[in-house]
Amino acid sequence: MKTHLTWVALLWSVLAASAHAALALDRTRIIFPQQSALETVRVKNPAEQPYLSQAWISDEQGNELLEPFMVVPPLVRINSDDYAVLRIEKVSGLDELPSDRESVFYFHVREVPPKEMASSAQSRVGQTGGSIQFAIESVIKLFYRPAALSQIKNIDLAQAKATSIEMVQEEIWLENNSPFYATYFSITDNQSNPVKGFESIMLKPFSREKLTMAVKGEYFITHINDYGALITNRYQCGNQRCQFVDRVK
């Protein structure tokens, strides 16, 4: 099923705003393997003023979570041209997550500017030190990956082969038959012309989404991999189904 929650849609506007943020994260997504004790994220402050970094984990609805992960330290001052390393640590509750597929969470970093800069900020409002300050928030996905999935060595290829387009009567379905969350960035019909009607989506493991787009004999589907890179694969159609042929780039 397509992740299509109002809160998730708002994330993208927040991420767009974070292009002007003072604090910068060292990645666009976090992969947390079950075998890892913790994962780290480096937060850089290239601005001329110090900022506070406030970090936490939430679910898909935006609710702050106290488990199964926690961020240490949750609040830290980062001086100009300096950085802080935030640790994402296991707490409890991981046994309740599926062992045959990924689970998704969201990692938030809210920057709190110096008091004298509050009047010029135009983003989310927070309460700090007894006075109202403005803050910009960056949000990236955190994927928890069970140990069983570590047996899959070439995830890009596995994702490509598990992706397909199926024509059922007059309906077109994009399918993700992998145990990974799949973010599909684009679908084109000749590597350059976007297929009309398609919008970027993230599909849960072993799910599919009905599309409104033209039927073609060949598609080029681009997904975002673990490192935030765009991977494009070619799919040829026959017998009401479009399947992976080869990687383009």
Automatic annotation (TrEMBL):
Residues 175-230 form the Pili assembly chaperone C-terminal domain. It comes from the Bacteria. One of its GO terms (cellular component) is outer membrane-bounded periplasmic space. InterPro entries: Ig-like_fold, PapD-like_sf, Periplasmic_pilus_chap, Pili_assmbl_chap_C_dom_sf, Pili_assmbl_chaperone_bac, Pili_assmbl_chaperone_C, Pili_assmbl_chaperone_N. Residues 23-149 form the Pili assembly chaperone N-terminal domain. It is found in: Periplasm. Its main location: periplasm. Residues 1-21 form the signal peptide. Keywords: Chaperone, Periplasm, Signal. The keyword Aminoacyl-tRNA synthetase does not apply. GO terms for biological process: cell wall organization. Pfam families: PapD_C, PapD_N. PANTHER family: FIMBRIAL CHAPERONE YADV-RELATED, PILUS ASSEMBLY CHAPERONE. Belongs to the periplasmic pilus chaperone family. This is Molecular chaperone.
